[in-house]
Amino acid sequence: MCVNIPMVELRRPVLYVRTNNKIDSISKATISLQGWDIEEVECLQEARSIIDNQKYSVGLIQLVSVEPGQLREVEALLTDYRTIEWVIITSTECLHERAFCKLIRETCHDYYTLPLSEVDYMRLLSTLGHAHGMASLCLDDLEQGYDEYEMVGSSPSMIKLFGSIRKVASVDAPVLIYGESGTGKELIARAVHERSGRADKPFIAVNCGAIPENLIQSELFGYEKGAFTGANSQKCGQIEAAAGGTLFLDEIGDLPFDMQVNLLRFLQENVIQRLGGNTEIPVDVRVVAATNVDLDAAVKSGRFREDLLYRLNVLQLQPPPLREREGDTQLMAQFFFDRFVSDGQAKLKGFSQTSLQVMERYSWPGNVRELINRIRRAIVMCDGRLIKPDDLDLQSYSTDDDRPVISLEEAREKAEKEAVISAIRYCHNNMTQTAKVLGVSRVTLYRIIEKYHLSLS
């Protein structure tokens, strides 16, 4: 078959496992025109051998029989090479076998039935491109061995953030990172450091909210021998330890007010004095601060110095909360699943479709940190092949606004109660007027008030 599709320059490898030479296969020429380098093998064992020697992000398997032995071999291949996005090419008859359909549903990116029409080829090429993109988003990070809290995302808001990080890293001014808890503020600070000219120097992180108030000055600025009881030797503070590199001040909004003036002086003069000392020590450090506190409000309430805020807030980065990262939840769920799956049972394959849907709807108040914790728990607790909502402890969340599912009767009662409360307030406790607004008699109104034990005060 020849399909009229424009040629492209990009060459991407795809593995084609053709298990039966007597059956019509796909047109390799048609797929090759769209930039795919097809490596064809004729058995599953040969597929394993070639995958071990070359990396593939996409694989095609032509399976036109569903004998139990062969099905088990295919399942083992798909399970052992989960980083590959697999697409099944099969026959209509095979789809009558429940075990085969279950295998496709749980382990494959998509499937197509032979023979392929021109429209089918257009869809297949689109599927291959999408599968390649999805696999590539996580593949590089997994191969480089990033830690469990690496930033992953392809949503517009994250792409914008990545661009901002690159711009901010190219200069040496202070940075203030605003974001909710669990959005990865320290990761952003590290990314700025690693992409800056200070990457080969220290990155020192200090949690301003975790250090006791009586110790924070010595922790940041260090102390001289004899500065206080127990100071038996000189100690450099965290600012000096970060010399030449980056000092990350997390939870800067929790820094005690009387310590803020010392930090301000350092930012202005680039010098420090150790506790108990008189010598000014020049220190070249880039400061990156982070907070989930509204510092403008803190300034108005007298809890944070306005001049310090101006010094810190030269450049600003704002990581989006997970609920605003469209399409990233499933991507990150798969990334962290692959990261921690070895903690669970060997037969664990991934997430059920219901789990994926629930994760998309859930608002994630704890952001990425909560996502990681729920997935790690689910991997350990799951008894089946697929992680279900109850493994994630999200079984009650299946509505668009993330509220627990309730019965219709409960919903009616809640709406009735809220309507009465609203009407009473609107009518300033005038029961006659409230009854008219609600369209009920005064007797009915008092009955509802009594039913829900509403206060008229």
Automatic annotation (TrEMBL):
GO terms for molecular function: ATP binding; sequence-specific DNA binding. InterPro entries: AAA+_ATPase, AAA_lid_NorR, Homeodomain-like_sf, HTH_Fis, P-loop_NTPase, Sigma_54_int, Sigma_54_int_dom_ATP-bd_1, Sigma_54_int_dom_ATP-bd_2. Residues 151-380 form the Sigma-54 factor interaction domain. GO terms for biological process: regulation of DNA-templated transcription. Pfam families: AAA_lid_14 (PF25601), HTH_8 (PF02954), Sigma54_activat (PF00158), VpsR (PF20161). SMART domains: AAA (SM00382). Keywords: ATP-binding, DNA-binding, Nucleotide-binding, Transcription, Transcription regulation. The keyword GTP-binding does not apply. This is Sigma-54 factor interaction domain-containing protein.
